[in-house]
Amino acid sequence: MQSRNDPRSALKAGEESLKSLVAEDDVSSRMILKKFLSQYGECDVAADGKEAVQAVKEAKQKGRGYDLVCLDLGMPVMDGQQALREIHKLDMAAGGLKPTRVIVTTAQTDIGSITNALLGRCNAYLMKPIDTTTLRNELEELGLIG
């Protein structure tokens, strides 16, 4: 039984727990986000954009995509902007599956990065260091937690 103070009790009645992915190349940032999001359900990690896109693809193929991806922009192999575009393409191809919500979590504060992420259809843009109260508020705004 979940207590009132249990973050999982923030899920709406009848909903499955949050399934999330943290795509972040910085180990400490990745672990902080994973620890926070794990309170609400399953949380996987990816160290670069290519791993993130692959994880999203595989989750959709298994029939339950990620509810949320927290995506850093400055990653190796494939940057977050490209990963965002690829995740959006996967959402479009999946048709009936619920679209993936993407929160960009980055240190990039220039207007070009912000504009490109918003044009790439991210749902929110949070600056590092990530404040967990702000992140929780965004999860509520997106309807991912109650």
What does this structure look like?
The protein has a single domain, classed as 3-Layer(aba) Sandwich (Rossmann fold), CATH 3.40.50. The chain is built from five helices and five strands. The chain has a five-stranded parallel beta sheet, with helices on both faces. It has about 150 residues and is α/β, with parallel strands linked by helices. The protein is globular. Helix 3 links the parallel strand 3 and strand 4.
Describe the structure using short key phrases.
alpha/beta, Rossmann fold, five-stranded parallel sheet, 5 helices, globular
Low-confidence stretches: 1-14
Q: What is the distance, rounded to the nearest whole angstrom, between the alpha carbons of the first and last residues?
A: 17 Å
What structural class do helix, strand and pairing data support? Answer: alpha/beta
* CATH topology label: Rossmann fold
What does this entry show, briefly?
This protein is of the alpha/beta class and 146 residues long. The protein has helices at residues 27-38, 49-61, 80-94, 111-119, 132-141; strands at 20-23, 43-46, 68-71, 101-106, 124-127.
Break the fold down into its secondary structure elements and pairings:
Blueprint: E1 20-23, H1 27-38, E2 43-46, H2 49-61, E3 68-71, H3 80-94, E4 101-106, H4 111-119, E5 124-127, H5 132-141
Parallel strand pairs: 1-2, 1-3, 3-4, 4-5
Helix pairs in contact: 2-3
